[in-house]
């Protein structure tokens, strides 16, 4: 059906945009928060070792 083609392309386009946004946000999250979490975990481990 020719009428279905534009809808399919739109859905594909939206799908790819969603993946791109998720990928960028995950990258941003990992860059900004992952080191903080790692440091926090290290501090936790150090305090556990002290005890």
UniProtKB/TrEMBL annotation:
Entry's Gene Ontology BP terms: proton motive force-driven ATP synthesis
Localization: Mitochondrion membrane
The name this protein goes by in its record: ATP synthase complex subunit 8
Domain of life, per lineage: Eukaryota
A Gene Ontology term for the protein's cellular component: mitochondrial membrane
Single GO MF descriptor: proton transmembrane transporter activity
Membrane topology: Single-pass membrane protein
Stated family: Belongs to the ATPase protein 8 family.
Organism annotation: Chrysodinopsis sp. EMHAU-1507081
UniProtKB keywords: CF(0), Hydrogen ion transport, Ion transport, Membrane, Mitochondrion, Transmembrane, Transmembrane helix, Transport
Complexes and interactors: F-type ATPases have 2 components, CF(1) - the catalytic core - and CF(0) - the membrane proton channel.
Annotated transmembrane regions: 6-30
């Amino acid at each position: 059906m020719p009428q279905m083609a534009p809808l399919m392309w739109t859905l594909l386009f939206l799908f790819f945009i969603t993946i791109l946004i998720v990928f960028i946000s995950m990258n941003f999250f990992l860059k900004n928060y992952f080191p903080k979490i790692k440091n926090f975990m290290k501090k936790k481990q150090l305090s556990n070792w002290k005890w």
